[in-house]
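Following up on my earlier thread - several people asked me to post the actual chain instead of describing it. Fair enough. Here it is, all 136 residues.
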Amino acid sequence: MELLTEDQKKVLTDAYDDNFIDLPNTDLVGDLEGYTHMQEERITTNNDARDLVLGEGGQKFDIKTQNMIIDKTPSTEIVEAVRKANGYGRRYIEWLEREGKLTSEKIQQFREAMKKVGSVLLPVSITTKSISEKNK
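Reply from S.P.:
Thanks for posting it. Predicted structure:
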């Protein structure tokens, strides 16, 4: 998470807290047993969920419009986006539901992470992809 500001790190950590990091040590471990890179998976899960919320073509909008879409997305769709983002997100939502911790506050934390982290990292990934494509 070196590329993130302190504010972005906090927002991401609020949404994907220590319980997310600890998933490999729960009964939901599956093939995560012994996995030690959950810190990095915060960004991956958040960005994958963000892409699902914005939908195909959503990246073409400016950041203000993207954030408005995220704000207007129903809470149930925010949860489903995290669940469908990847295996980490699916396990985390399952854990939150089981423990009674999938609250409106947690959903708002997901929403804020999608707005504040994904929107800043997006140009970096586009630039990197463009550069790597030119080098082919």
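The chain is about 70% helix and 0% strand. That should answer part of your original question.
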